[in-house]
Amino acid sequence: MNYKESGLKSFEALSVVLILLLSLYPLYSLISHYTGGDQVAYNLLYERFASVSNARELFSVAQSTVSSYEIVSPVVLWLGSYLGIDKNLYITVLNLILLSLLVISMRCLGASWLIVLLLIFNFYLIVLFTGTERLKIAFIFALLATFGGRKFRLLMSLISILAHFQMIILLAGLFMFFNAETYLRSIKDVLASWKLDRNIVIGVFSILLICFVILFVPGLMEGLINKGTGYFRYDGFNPSEFIQFFVLAVSFIIARGAKVGFKTLVFILFFFVVIGLLGGERVNMIFFSATLFVLLAEKKLVMTRVYSWPFILVLFYLAVKSVGFVNNIYLYGNGFYRG
């Protein structure tokens, strides 16, 4: 989207720099102590990348080590290893890039500093900082997509998907929300007069472009199939996942004025179906990201607005939830440790 008066003032820019400086050591410390969980595989991947000599070997190593069939994130991680940069330092730099883009985009969208502060300590963001290298890289490009025009957004969105396939869920959900009513009207117009709306043409072209990339880039189709079958093997119905989804959905609806329109219904039902199919842990993170972006884009997340407070309370809860996660990192080397 194009930000209205999005240029940061001097005070804003200095504030962002200060946040990054204050975050440098904590971020480095977190990733240095996170030695368990997915980081075992990612540390091994980074070591193996140091001896990779060609693209074929690069993607083969990524597939065998972390089951990655993406294109972008392995290249980004290989670059740091190839340059001989310490992994913890390199990931810290990526985390700082993610944090800076998040803060700048949130402020440009009109988020108050309290909202920004709650997001910095948000459980899902801490997870991105520590245990999900590929998803972190994907979110960096997704945030870049919020700056610039339509072509730039499309390019960054595509790169984001190629960094982690789960971004298809986020971008598809946002696309449905912002275009559902337009498409409904366009379909009615097409049925009535057979005239095509410009947005429908762009939407169909975007879908065809993504399908073309998936079909003709070597390994992508196989990767999607393998990832999909892997996610379908999750442990089944988990009440807590749906409770988290329900709380997020209700607070989102209230923040939008307690009105459930067509696009809101499509948006929520889409994520509900995805959670039912793939499980809720990662999808709830993506659903939270989507709801947050929508509320900020629509100027619905305002401290002085009563309807905003249920969602703001969710932000407080997620900030508190991160304390236990961080504690587990320092005690056990794994934020998701269960004794």
TrEMBL record:
Bilayer-spanning residue ranges: 12-31, 88-104, 111-129, 159-180, 200-221, 242-258, 264-297, 309-333
Keywords, comma-separated and alphabetical: Membrane, Transmembrane, Transmembrane helix
Protein name per UniProt: EpsG family protein
Organism: Pseudidiomarina indica
Lineage summary: Bacteria, Pseudomonadati, Pseudomonadota, Gammaproteobacteria, Alteromonadales
